[in-house]
């Protein structure tokens, strides 16, 4: 199994975390960002979007990080990490897609300006707007975690992976955050998992 991407990508973290939870260790081929390589004819033949991650497993090539997570969980996982049944999958996928669609753009504006740009290069208005939107969305997850340990129940599932990768940067950046105790406790539980430590808690760059 091969995984193309870079360790500091939120979407690549998601795929690597999933693999680590399943005791899979795909070969990481570093492309994207400072590594380049995503515009080559060879890479575009696998992923015409020119984005990361991209997974190859036994001849199957997949892109889109949530699709990669679902595939790995369905092929190599088992309950409770892999949801069992239509209803359980729907509950998990709701949170996967919510994090990936609602948080991605505001988080990108916050992260790019706060972490990847110098103070002179920052768009402070975009950074603050991104922070405010994220701060307005995080209470949705906090409320869901009020009476459960993880987003889809009392055990870690694929539901937690997309938001967990955002949460790592959210709690690591030097920014103003709302006081959300249930979200913070959930994040603390994630940080105690070896797979999260190795796949997600890499330097923010």
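Q: What amino acid sequence fits the structure above?
A:
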């Amino acid at each position: 199994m091969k995984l193309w991407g870079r360790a500091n990508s939120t979407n690549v973290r998601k795929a690597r975390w999933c693999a680590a939870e399943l005791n899979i260790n795909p070969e990481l081929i570093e492309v994207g960002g400072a590594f380049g390589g995503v515009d080559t004819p060879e890479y575009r033949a696998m992923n015409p979007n020119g984005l990361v991650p991209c997974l190859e497993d036994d001849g199957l090539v997949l892109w889109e990080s949530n699709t990669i997570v679902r595939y790995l969980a369905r092929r190599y996982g088992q309950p409770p990490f892999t949801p069992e049944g239509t209803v359980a999958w729907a509950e998990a996928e709701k949170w996967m897609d919510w994090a990936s669609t609602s948080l991605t753009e505001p988080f990108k504006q916050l992260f790019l300006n706060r972490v990847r740009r110098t103070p002179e290069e920052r768009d402070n208005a975009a950074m603050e707007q991104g922070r405010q939107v994220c701060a307005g969305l995080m209470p949705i997850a906090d409320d869901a975690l009020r009476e459960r340990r993880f987003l889809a129940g009392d055990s870690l599932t694929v539901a937690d992976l997309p938001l967990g990768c955002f949460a790592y940067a959210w709690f690591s950046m030097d920014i103003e955050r709302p006081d959300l105790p249930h979200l913070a406790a959930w994040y603390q539980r994630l940080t105690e998992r070896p797979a999260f430590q190795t796949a997600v808690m890499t330097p923010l760059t």
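Q: And what stands out in the fold?
A: Residues 86-116 form the longest helix (31 residues).
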